[in-house]
Amino acid sequence: MKSEMKRLSIALGLCCAAALAAVPQPPAVKKLENLGFLTGAKAPGNTLGQGGVGGTDLGYPAYSEKWGKMFLFFGDTFERPENLKGDWRSNVVGYGDPGRIVRDRILDGFVTNRPGRACAAVEGRHVDGREMTRIPTGAIEVDGRLYLFFFSMRSWKLPRNIRMNGGGAVFSDDAGVTWTEIPALYRKNLLEGGSTGVVCGFTQVFPVCGRDGFVYFFGEGGFRSGPIRLARARATCPDIENPSRWEYFTGTDDGNPCWKEGTEGLRLCHELKKANLVDDLCGEFSVCWNPYLRRRLMIYTREGEGEGRVTPISIRARVADHPWGPWSESTFLFDRKFPFGYKCNSVYGGLTHERMTENGGKTVYFLYSQYAPVYQTSVMRLEFQ
């Protein structure tokens, strides 16, 4: 009897582990609709007149409970999008009600340093070969403090894996008016130095509240040149700002996540292939909880061939029960062949937030960008089956 009970216990344990490790089905899409520009002179809110934002991209969302509004962190910004000139700012910060932003495509305003001029949260040098620009990769509010993660681009002309200098973070306690850099969180792009060094997978960081006392940091390195990895820290300001308190995901054991703290954890996270959440060549991405799917939703840029398409870049979605996965196979959303009503040469992004939804999460709004022929951020509406 004891031996039978033992065998039953082992079998149940294996079943539980298998259930924990089960890969979910990819999300099924019912409808995808391009709503149009959020930024630029032709957007409903005319951000050129609003903050001198004639052309920009990205728009990483972070909702502030303290200030009661959604902040959007845009990338390189110009007055004239047709030639990328005029009052170049490496990034600007818009804000507004999340529903109004996505449904009406109107921002309440921008953080400014002079009347009518949106200003950079963390400005780049604008010197090619040293630091061309600084671009946001994600943001979050913890204990009333806004954290913005960014990467420093050395040159757009270099190979993708060595284009960056590195990535870091800044914080603001006054609704994005002033920002303070956190030197301890700056990571060089190459962990081992030199052109053959290992690319740090956390030079681009998208932070997410885990609702379990942790902030999870989804990371990617290089520039659309590697997988997505994962780290976490307790959801307190001292823990987030101290890299030695970060724990890195190194894989699973019987379906349970394994974590290793500090420098050793960072090393193992890079060495172990089982630590990769998504093995695509990934770029701009976001992750949030979706109550309709009852899973975490990831939307991201994939570098590489689309299914039966000749374009090198596509926007995709995956789901998972836990931040560490396992993540589903990807669902193709669209590429530059999507019927925009004009010839579109590039698309990238996929930036969303749990507050950018309707119908209990069945409808999701997300931001995407295009480089040409029009440099802007637009809103897409996605409805799941």
Low-confidence stretches: 1-19, 306-310
Overall CATH class: Mainly Beta
What's the order of the H and E elements?
Answer: HEHEEEHEEEEEEEEEEEHEEHEEEEEEEE
| Gyration radius from CA atoms, angstroms | 21 Å
Count up the domains: 1
> How is the biggest beta sheet arranged?
9 strands, antiparallel
- Specify the helix fraction band: 10-25%
Number of strands: 25
Judging by the overall fold, what is the CATH architecture? 5 Propeller
What would you say this structure looks like, in words?
The chain is mostly beta strands and 385 residues long. It has a single domain (30-384), classed as Tachylectin-2, Chain A (5 Propeller), CATH 2.115.10.20. It is built from five helices and 25 strands. Strands 13, 14, 15, 16, 17, 18, 19, 20 and 21 form a nine-stranded antiparallel beta sheet that branches. The longest helix has 19 residues, at 2-20. The radius of gyration is 21 Å and the shape is globular.
